[in-house]
Amino acid sequence: MGKTTQRNTNPFKNTDTNKRYYTYDYYLRKRFGGKCAKIPIDAGFTCPNIDGSRGVGGCIYCSGRGSGDFAESPCLSITEQYRIQREKLSSKWSTDRCIPYFQAFTNTYASIEVLKEKYEEAISLDGVVGLNIATRADCIDREKAEYLASLAEKTELTVELGLQSSDDVTASFINRCHTYEEFLNGYRMLNEASDKINVCVHIILGLPGEDREIMLKTVRDVAALRPEQIKIHLLHVLRGTRLAELYETGEYAPLEKEEYVSLVADALELIHEDTVIGRITGDGMGDELIAPLWSRKKVCVINDVDKLLYERDSWQGKKFSK
Description:
The chain is α/β, with parallel strands linked by helices. The protein is built from 10 helices and 9 strands. The termini are far apart.
């Protein structure tokens, strides 16, 4: 009789490890038969809350690269960015399967002609098995949803929508410049356009002014939509942002590690077991990160979430309610 371990006593179905939630890694291995490398791409877009269309300044936590800090310069072609990043990642992951990730700023904030040029170039590259596009729900219209539906016929397409919070007071404070109802409109358009479009919704824990109840309400709201994926982020304070100013004056305090780990475990319990969890934390760029410094130990945070779920005898979806 073998030794009893967390892995062989794990009650959660969507896993082959000790993880009690549906990891993105497990999803990719099931879908493509092995590991895949995500290749960050900066296509040179901007955002409507930066250029004055909806607002200026961008979200209060966003870096100067619009969350595309790990990508190459947008001055380079899509093909060249892909080549350089693939070479960099070759030492980390031994795989021929790659997914270009249009991550920086808002990647449907352009004409259909521009989007076609960039996306079609990306999916034609050697080793590409899918495409991820990060954007805002208010930058999805019927024409773009229909184009994305046609793109989903050619490759495994995931459209990532940055919601962050379903609370409109929070949205206004962080300068997101669109409402939750506008998010729902964009989300519905994608779902109505094609069931082949995977939708990933981003949420952030620790936003200014939000207590545990408000944060978990966002989780419940998003979980009820049953998106294909959800990404859970920790709010970071990065240099040069409006959030950094609030932190320096004492108007904002980031979450403590134990509080964040507990919140993530609570959130996972509320999310349907078949929703892929794209991430449960993150870390800011080295010199740019001001706080919380404990977030640099990302593996420790993930391990603590695993441990807490085990101690609770809990797992993703245990408290999911329609």
